[in-house]
Amino acid sequence: xxxxxxxxxxxxxxxxxxxxxLEIDGRSITVPEGTSVMRAAMDAGITVPKxxxxxxxxxxxxxRLCAVEIEGRRGTPASCTTPVAPGMKVHTQTDKLAxxxxxxxxxxxxxxxxxxxxxxANGDCELQDMAGAVGLRNVRYGFDxxxxxxxxxxxxxxxxxxxxxxxxxxxxxxxxxxETQGTFALTIDGxxxxxxxxPGAKENFMDSECVSCGACVQAxxxxxxxxxxxxxxxxxxxxxxxxxxxxxxxCSFKAEMRGTTVVRMTPxxxxxxxxxxxxxxxxxxxxxxxxxxxxxxxxxxxxxTDPWRExxxxxxxxxAAERLKAVQAKYGRGSIGGITSSxxxxxxxxxxxxxxxxAFGTNNIDTCARVxxxxxxxxxxxxxxxxxxxxxxxxxxxxxVILVIGANPTDGHPVFGSRMKKRLRAGAKxxxxxxxxxxxxxxxxxxxxxxxxxxxGTNVAVVNAIAHVIVTEGLVxxxxxxxxxxxKEFAKWExxxxxxxxxxxxxxxxxxxxxxxxxxxxxxxxxGGNAAIYYGLGVTEHSQGSSTVMAIANxxxxxxxxxxxxxxxxxxxxxxxxxxxxxxxxxxxELPGYRHVSDDLVRQEFEAAWGVTLDPEPxxxxxxxxxxxxxxxxRGLFVQGEDIVQSDPNTTHVTSALESLDIVIxxxxxxNETAAFAHVFFPGTxxxxxxxxxxxxxxxxxxxxxxxxxxxGKDEHWVACALATAMGYPMHYETTSEIMDEIARLTPTFRGxxxxxxxRVGSVQWPCTGLEDDDxxxxxxxxxxxxxxxxxxxxxxxxxxxxxxxxxxxxVLTTGxxxxxxxxxxxxxxxxxxxxxxxxxLEINAADAELRGVKxxxxxxxxxxxxxxxxxxxxxxxxxxxxxxxxFHHPVTGANVITTENSDWATNCPEYKVTAVxxxxxxxxxxxxxxxAKNDVERKRIAAANVIxxx
Length: 951
Description:
By secondary structure, the protein is of the alpha/beta class.
């Protein structure tokens, strides 16, 4: 294994149909028009010294180290800022240039600490490399004059240091913050010799607007910005390309190692989803993989009130199988089931659903993806014929209008959020539909044209109102509709949407959005050029989630914004493998590839491959499992990598259901909240220990590779195979690639996927149906026709949610995520990310706070019809009057103690986004929090004992 080095070409690649031929150092070179001389030279294998230039940033031309000579031109222009021209003759190596470059390097080194042997960047320092490249041997100016070598070091950030004494003011960090990340947190303060990099208004990094994405650290050519992990462990000796296990963007990283220790996660430039960018979670928050709370040994217990007992893997498997078989013998085959995880690999999820169907003999299989994006699957299948987003992430670069509804990309999908902001800074127009003022509404150099600040629960009404304007004002793309869509369905929809009850004026009192704003936004979307829609959980997690998805699809078809770059309907998946867990057949009514269990031909194909008869009837969804547990007919549950107690709605209902079960099996990294109700615990593996694939929000299948050996001694799919075998259905795979090969054989959209291909080409996007070497799948879907043939318009009646405010519960609670944390926080809470978000807080409008006597920072009781919790209030202008907001990253908050059991009419996706609540000052923990504190003491005791046993 070796350290993977990526070539830095100095300036970005240019795309042009016009080619330019020039001569560099006597060699004829042909490149696209607009290419820099530096890039052209590097393409030809000719290295030009540089410091301020890097190929992730636009050329800057400040360091003067890349000077070249061009015949017929005076002076020595910077090769990074000089574009190629036909017939140009360039010289990169002359005596004049050598002298000039040595002189430039002398100036840099005269103001730089000479501590290379003890510097953390020794061996990975561009300044050091360039000094050698230009042949610097002495510094004529000495080191005793005025310099910056005594500048203070800023160590406020938990992940990296800023040592100003080593800064050469190349501006790469500032430019990365602006161009790549789009936060504009860094600036050059002062002029001339007094110039220095400053976070904000001379703040430290922790107090500034910096979001710790790592772009500045990545761009820095010296040890000025250095990861603390590198300072502690030293430079890496080998690296492995893998995929981040946080959000649905699916960023590719180099896991850089010393032995089996990760010392740095560096975003990979060739990553199809991120192209060398990252966020604070993927870049830095990987320490949970070695956290002391991890459980390393299988454990069992007879009753959930008993203490845990460590056992061997074989004993744990036998114990679990014995209890599951006993339950089925007493209560019937359908009395047990399982839940897969969107944090696990495709291969792990596939094996678990196969275990449930083939070994358990039931379709009682569901996934955490259902509680977030199942309306996407249903809605897009009904309208387009496939259950996934239509575009790749690069498509946004061609968008002229971007409509963001129910999503917060800068917090939930930050790398894609940065890409979107870059497009907005380049001139694209933005429409935001959200009850909360998210950052995209107004942030540096980004301003939404329209913020439709609707009342929670009225998404369908607002989208219908936008469509009403498009239909009644003659803005429908008739040519597209007539060619690509079902004419009868369109006629029905057109007549429905044109009715006055769908007009912005009629719906204004319900949505809270002024009619003139809706009309203006509709005209912009329909006439502004390429228009793309991006949506998230603020669309799907409603009682009308599926209706909203179909309404969005109607909007895209009516305006012809589908089937090419820059347009489309794009769900932003919440977790790293939400798309994949759905693809793999984790729903009770669908086998892998979204094929219904009642389809005889499909079922026969799986029966022939698996050697077992499959149930043709759909099984139970998670809510049905809970209800059946309460009535006594459902008695056993296998939970893979999912904390349903913290993540599912109406926590009291969930916990009482789990308490009634005869056997609960949990497989996870940590003793999560669900494990408090388990009888068997199987230790899981982190993404750094996995071999397999994740599928991101753009349908991109990325390899996940082992960076370090499993800390628990087993791969996760081994547990499912061993348990299936113990249940009487032999199942075994020698390698993980065998699992993907089986997936490809049985899933048409994965037919052309294999580990060999992924290792060769980097990634593919499904549908990838061909076996050809160059088939990397379909980036843009529905280009010539829809997967179902003709696009289907669906009538989407606005039906108000059953959850209504009253005098007792006059406010509406909506929930979401924050940048520093991920999902239920099991991973990020075990990293330094807690420095930014140590607790969940309640955002409340100043008027609502004043009415209740609540001041900023007060502890308040948040109560609904379901339950109550206590948390800190933050007065915020992000929230409109009547709406409050919180996150669910900290289990002690118990946000889902509050949420109801209301759910989407088609998929049972919970309505997390609309809960009627009351807020009052309180300094007492809720009863639920008191119980949580007791359980937490026990969890910590077990974790500590496990560390001792492991040691």
